[in-house]
């Protein structure tokens, strides 16, 4: 339902170990309450001998339903490029883990993540300290039911 979901996986399901995987969860074109429709374009290291087939870039597009209804015209606009907007060297698990660690210390970066998470809606309420911690915790916890392990010390 959300636009930007980040989920990390670690060796032996321990966040102190190496980040091994990231779940790429795309947004929905469905217009849920308070959410604008969105879609994502992934650029993959392509179809050639020796290709890694890894995700090398990601762009998210969205439509502002308030504008659509006012103008009677559906137009999708680039919302963000993940590597550029989050200053990531690549889209590897290590870079995603680095992003999460930076969000712990940089409120502006976390605000950007939360805005993108809700597809730029202005109708979502304020996010207090517990709410902000939950965003980081949810992203650190790729495995359901292990919040006590992944969120300890956040």
UniProtKB/TrEMBL annotation:
GO BP annotation list: ceramide biosynthetic process; sphingomyelin catabolic process
Presence of keyword Glycoprotein: yes
Classification via InterPro entries: ASM_C (IPR045473)
Residues covered by the Sphingomyelin phosphodiesterase C-terminal domain: 23-140
GO cellular component terms, A-Z: extracellular space; lysosome; membrane
GO molecular function: acid sphingomyelin phosphodiesterase activity
Keyword Hydrolase tagged: yes
Keywords: Glycoprotein, Hydrolase
Pfam family, one: ASMase_C
PANTHER family, sorted: SPHINGOMYELIN PHOSPHODIESTERASE
Protein name: Sphingomyelin phosphodiesterase C-terminal domain-containing protein
Species name: Panagrolaimus superbus
Taxonomic classification: Eukaryota, Metazoa, Ecdysozoa, Nematoda, Chromadorea
């Amino acid at each position: 339902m959300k636009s930007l979901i980040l989920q990390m996986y670690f060796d032996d399901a321990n966040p102190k170990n190496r980040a091994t995987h990231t779940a790429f969860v795309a947004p929905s074109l469905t217009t849920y309450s308070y959410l604008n429709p969105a879609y994502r374009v992934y650029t993959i290291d392509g179809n050639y001998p020796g290709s890694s087939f890894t995700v090398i870039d990601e762009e998210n597009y969205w439509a502002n339903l308030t504008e659509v209804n006012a103008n009677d015209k559906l137009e999708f606009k680039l919302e963000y490029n993940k590597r550029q907007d989050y200053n990531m060297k690549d889209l590897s698990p290590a870079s995603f883990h680095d992003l999460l660690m930076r969000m712990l210390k940089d409120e502006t970066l976390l605000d950007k993540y939360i805005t993108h998470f809700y597809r730029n809606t202005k109708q979502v309420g304020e996010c207090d300290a517990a709410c902000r911690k939950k965003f980081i915790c949810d992203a650190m916890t790729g495995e359901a039911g292990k919040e006590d392990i992944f969120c300890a010390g956040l």
